[in-house]
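Reopening this one. Same input as before:
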Amino acid sequence: MTSNSMYNDLDPANRFLSDRFRHIPVTERSRMIALAKGYSNIISLGRGDPDLDTPGNIVEAAKRALDQGKTHYTDWIGIPELREAIADKLRRENGMDYDKSEILVTVGGQEAVFMLMLSLLNMGDEIIIPEPRYTSYDTAIEVAGGKMVPLITKPENDFQIMAEDVEKLITPRTKALLVITPNNPTGVVMTKENLEALAEVAKRHDLVVISDEIYEKLMFDGWKHWSIGSFPGMKERTLTVNGVSKSYSMTGWRLGYVAGPRNIIDAMSQLKYAITICAASISQLAALEAFTGPQDSLEEMVNVYNKRRLVTMMRLDRLGIPYVTPRGAFYIFPEIRKYGMTSFDFCRFMMEKAQVLLFPGTAFGEGGEGFVRISLLAPTDKIMEAFDRMEKALEML
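Same output, byte for byte:
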């Protein structure tokens, strides 16, 4: 029997698929989006694509670049001016001193994540990952041959990653630790004290840290974002992933970056060329404007998201649904266990009875069972209408 013969009773073309691909399941996120297509009056509180437009000055910069014929390949690792602007930003805002040669511009943060896993993980290497989390990491780790070791974060700890919990999971095969702050889907912002404790664990056990900071500028209630790579002894073992997608409403521009030790960035640049050569030239020049131009729009966006956050919390309070107050990003992760349904069934119920799209907590790992993710990416009046619908649906229970 050949390795593919077990698939001969399926679609004939399936026998050509690699075994690697068969380990990648259809996500609950994809299932919910597919279900939503069957309804014409859906209010989406599910997806993570900002509904606010890219700021006008960034769009104008892209138009100028087009008019000037800036439509050719760039340096593989990104145009020098953009990498210098990112280095300036990291020094000024994050307390991390990088040369532009230690920065790689990528096609969104997800390409950075994928290349990082391929560059860092050998077959069987373990990486400790918080749960719940954005699960694109799972695919990258699987393809790289690594082993995910989930660390279940708990609402009683405000979904913080606790150093003592990390230490319990470390084995001789542990190579890396993933930190996501602010977090998707919980909205948690790691405290400085907890990050310092994680840094000590990483140094003591010689771990590399991947720090996903894509939501760093979306902060509420006076909370401050801290970069773990800025702590003593951490620069040489930290890869910081970031980009412009969330902070500047530029998801479709696909522009991210990773900053880290030069030898790792050099290795990733070779992989980068093989995968996409370079990030889109126009997107790079638009991102340059995002980093160096006026920042007024950022403050306006944060104010909009905060108003939506407060309205959402008010409506959850009215329903008696518990949640951990999100201090960053644009999500809230309420607990729905009292309704006696799985996370997926609760979301399907809301889809069918209220035409409201939510994402089940299990779309972010098994540790998300009993929770759902609500995105703050609809106008306040739509959020109010969605909760009116959900309140009526819950009366049926």
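So the earlier flakiness isn't reproducible anymore. For the record, The longest helix spans residues 296-319.
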